[in-house]
Amino acid sequence: MIVIVFGLPGSGKTYFASELASRIRGLHISSDSIREELNKHTYDEKDKMEVYKYMLKLIEGSNHTKNLILDGTFYKAEIRDWFKQKARSLNADLRFIEMKAEEELIKKRVSRIREKTQADFNVYLKIKSAFESMQEDHLILNSGQEDLSTMLERAENYLNSPNEPSPDQ
Length: 169
Prior knowledge:
47% of the residues lie in helices and 17% in strands. With 169 residues, the chain is an alpha/beta fold. It has a five-stranded parallel β-sheet. It is globular and about 40 Å long.
């Protein structure tokens, strides 16, 4: 199974994805780690696309014996579509979990120094203005309103439920 944890910077994606990977014995792949590995320290369009394309290669190169948990903003429908196509080509179950939080909490989170990311409030605002909502059914979690154990339990229930193909599949 491939699980994409997505949302705006500061929404709690990486922390949640890491905990989820541990809980379901999966491999966590973070766009922030990839950005660091590729030495892409800007959030311009070109660098973001290179990070996502690299993540696609990692999916293709994985042995598919483990669940993969990817985290990143996945802020455009086109990017999410790339991953849907890749999952279909690999005959893999793909699930999306969107992380949200109130803007004041995000502002607090991104004002602190965080490991492997330079996404500050200006980056948050830039991505927020370009963010395309996901129209298909997916799980939405609010890291400012739910505790971690509740979110993990909801995620596990969602991941263990039958995946109905969306009309575009």
